[in-house]
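Supplementary Methods S3. Input chains for the assembly prediction are listed below.
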Amino acid sequence: MADISIKSIRPRWRTLTILAGMLLFLSPFALIPQLAGEVNMCGAVCPRMFFIIPAGELAAGFRKSFSAEWFGVGLVGLILGVTAFFGRLWCGHLCPIGGAAELGSRAAPKRLKLDFSDLHAPAFRYAYFSLFVAGTALGLGGISCKLCNFRIIPFLAGSPFVPGYRTYLLSSIGLAGLATMLVTGFLARGGRAYCNLLCPIGALDGLMNFISDQLPFARRMRVDEHKCTGCGACTRSCMVWALEVRADRKVHRDQLSCMSCGECEGSCPRGALRYGKL
Amino acid sequence: MRKPLRVLLCALGGLAAGAGLAGYKFPGYLHASVALNGPEKPLVVDGRRRQFLALSVTGLGEVRDLRVRMAGAEVGSWFPPAVRVSWPWGKAPSFESGRFGGFPAGRKLPVYLGFDHDGPQAIEFVDGASGKVIRTVKITRGGTDGGHQH
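Predicted structure tokens for the full assembly:
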């Protein structure tokens, strides 16, 4: 296995890249949204509305949403392209939304934290995602902006500066979103339960990570089975419970969930975890 | 718990969460699209006194200066940016005291209104340059909780 160790650039590097992501995407600067004439991750920057199947005529509906959220379309395309080659660098290293929740969760007392690892994340995630995408077309209603993490975190960041954000956050939908981010973000072990269970971008990105995993050019966090003794030390460091010790006493990695963050690498006493190609 | 059962239960949980959220209408909240160049349609809110409207305003045509007003309401937006960055393209609109400015043609504008629904009320969209009322949107009370209206 050709490998590149990223032990030397983690975890302080990852904290810095997350902070950079927050600087680029969130108030007060919102540098990237302002490229598209927006100030947060809504409007043209929204990365999660354009792939919702519309009610009515499909082609016209998709044309309208792709046109309205053109920057979000480009952003998601870039994210998925990078994932195909290098793993989930957006989710694990740059996303200001999941990153803010993760950084916030580090400040929360351990005794208050909720552990969601008993849930089978891919099963829950893709069942929820299927209704996120098809709910409107099926006549169930739309999830759309409800409990949207790409709204709550940017609005929280902007609330000291813009009264409109405070008004929204104190409405019924805003309070529900805050409660969701609190339970599945700031108070979740690892801070990434929302990312792993509810985020539609995470769902898409996980799918790309899984599909491209076996391609020869794909770099991922991988387990060297020759070195692995199945001690399970790495499972405790994973924020998205993607690692599991199986009956063969080897650790298996779920590439549908793995965020390529590299946090597991330093926890392995035998150096069995590496970032690299097959 | 055996893995197939765990997978099934979690999948059902995801479906339940998705279906529940898709069908749920948050009390006192309405997300609606208002087309200034389309047919006049009232906004129907639920029975709660305190209301929050999140509007996407389209169909501005040649208007470049839009004022939104409603008696007794707090009119807001997420514009302007806290720190304006002078990119040569993609300039974010300005917003102050209910007035939008500096936006290109075809722009969709986000407007928030927080108010107590005490009686007949209406939102007025005014061309700031001419002072002419472009559209008046009435707010009426319906029997169901708010959701999304076009």
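Chain A touches chain B through 55 residues (CB under 8 Å). The beta strands of chain A are 3-4, 220-223, 243-245, 251-253, 273-276.
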